[in-house]
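User: My instructor asked us to take a sequence, write out its structure as tokens, and then describe one feature of it. I'm not sure where to start. Here is the sequence I was given:
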Amino acid sequence: MPAASPTQTIDLAITGMTCASCVSRVEKVLARVPGVQAAAVNLATERARVTAHHPDLQALIAAIQKAGFTAAEIRPEAPPTAGTKPQDKKDLIHLIAAAVLSAPLLPGMAAPALMLPAAAQFALATIIQFWLGARFYKAGWAAARALSGNMDLLVALGTTAAWGLSTWTWLATGHAHGLYFESAALLITFVLFGKWLEAKAKRSTLNALAALIKLRPATARLLNKNTETETPIAAIRHGDLIVVRPGERIPVDGRIAKGSGAIDASMLTGESLPTDHTVGDSVAAGAINADGHLVIETTAIGAETMLARIVRLVQDAQASKAPIQRLADKTSAVFVPVVIGIALATLAAWLLAGAGADTAILNAVSVLVIACPCALGLATPTAIMVGTGMAARRGILIRDAEALERACAVQTVAFDKTGTLTLGKPSLARIVPPRALADAAALQAGSEHPLAEAVRIAAKAIEKPRAEHFRAMPGLGVAATVGDRHLILGNARLMADNGIDLAPLAADAAAMTGAGHTVSYLAETAPQRRAAAVLGFSDTIKPGAREAIGQLHRMGLRTVMLTGDSEGAARTVARQIGIDEVHAGILPQGKAEAVAALRPVAMVGDGVNDAPALAAADVGIAMGGGTDVAMETAGITLMRGDLSLVADAIEVSRRTVRKIRQGLFWAFAYNALGIPLAALGYLSPMAAGAAMALSSVSVVCNALLLRSWRPLT
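Assistant: Let's start with the prediction itself. The structure tokens for your sequence are:
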């Protein structure tokens, strides 16, 4: 069977989108390009992410241009943008011009005596309509040509109807009364004002991600034969020595080769205080060297650095769509045609009721304008952008919008024990009999398990025999040959599988378990089959673990421990920190099965040994230093091993989803209330235009309130 062709992801910057209907149209045209598997368009960032087999960039751009928009590829290192500075300046100039030209029309609305002559009204309104409003005609025509609709089409139809009615009335009657030029002019002015405010608010949603990207220094001070040279980052290679002076940002990921000092990594991990680092310690690009003179050996640059991975993960999350967005997508696909139908029905109903043509047309115009689906397309992406950005600044990386939405629904949080609830640096507290330490150390010489390291440290000063034919059994232990003996070292399950009678060691094992120690056994399977020793390991509970579990309880969440450790040791830790439920002595696959039975559940682990359980959970939360494995496996990655971040991650998820729901509710409610009012004649076109413009701004500003979120502890 031939292998599936590899897929690639392309990010495109799109200009010209104004509402949710535009998003739907772009996604549809991209989906029809050969090889495209998926296309997700974000109105707030004005970006599209396309996944395809052997994507043809030019074909993608051509499809978007045919739909009436412009597109360009975004390079991975490009900063996030919502609009461009030249366009921002042009929009502001057009807004000011519209306001200046509309101002003379306002007095006549309050007092007929102050009304301008009809020719002056016509001149001012026409300039606004066909110069400043040209953008609506251009984008609206592109939508109509594609047999679709958008905000621009509704505005173009509505304002043209008001302008056309006024022009016809003026030419037919010759007087300045009964004209609605100010309605068309002010409508365009209000829409331009709303779009300008919306653009400013959207840019604010990108602040957190932009702050992360700005952490990347452009150059590094390369050390070569005692000479320091300012060198572009792109020219730095693995193994190069980089000098970082006090107060400077670290330009690369690396290890300290010389010097020591406090490193401020708050923007990467959310840690509030600098931490001391010395020779051999790892440092990350973007962190600040607070007070030391460091020489760093480069281990990663560019896209390989932790900072680049964080930025990439946040960008991926902000480009994704939450499941809750599907309703808005389905609605926006048919929204504009339905609104046009309602406007025509309004026109016909008022005419049949005996109203004049001017009243019927103006009420139909109000329907067209008030129903623009801008807020519908902004509610979800803006909240996701702000929520994921704020979380990232505090050391919480959310993989995608689906993980964000699922996290808010969890009712149970399950924890691994070793390395998650404890420091993961156990020490050998006791071994019975002590003479068995040499054999235990021989077996553990080739193991990377934390308990193996504890045995090796304890046996550092004694002579050890040589072990051969080493074999690791995940979740059970290890086996090897020492001389003519076949030895195994592991948990009680491994002993039972090999028929080892543990009765001779039961009393010592019980005493160790009662003290909260993790128990392992050493046994011989050939030439004899007997229990040889019992080992007790102690591990330290993480600082703040009890407080973190308490915070989860206050949030109404149940806590569970899933561990391969013994029942006694697991329950001792659970009792000390307040865990509600314990499942002990289970293998990695057993953890996954236990997690599946606890749904809706979040699983917290180290992202490596707990990979099956992290994948099985509704939301996997990986603790630690943001390793590649953790980021690939978990929906949420915590950049430092602080258990309080678990509650923070769930809380920021709850708040973000709450903002999404609020935004969608108000977007739907606004149209559900506004369209009937406009159809019944209770809203003038100007009031409808102002309300439509401010609805989008209010949705974005509501999402921006997430920026006030602070960690719970």
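For the description part of your assignment, you could build on this observation: The chain has a mean pLDDT of 84. Try explaining in your own words what that tells you about the chain.
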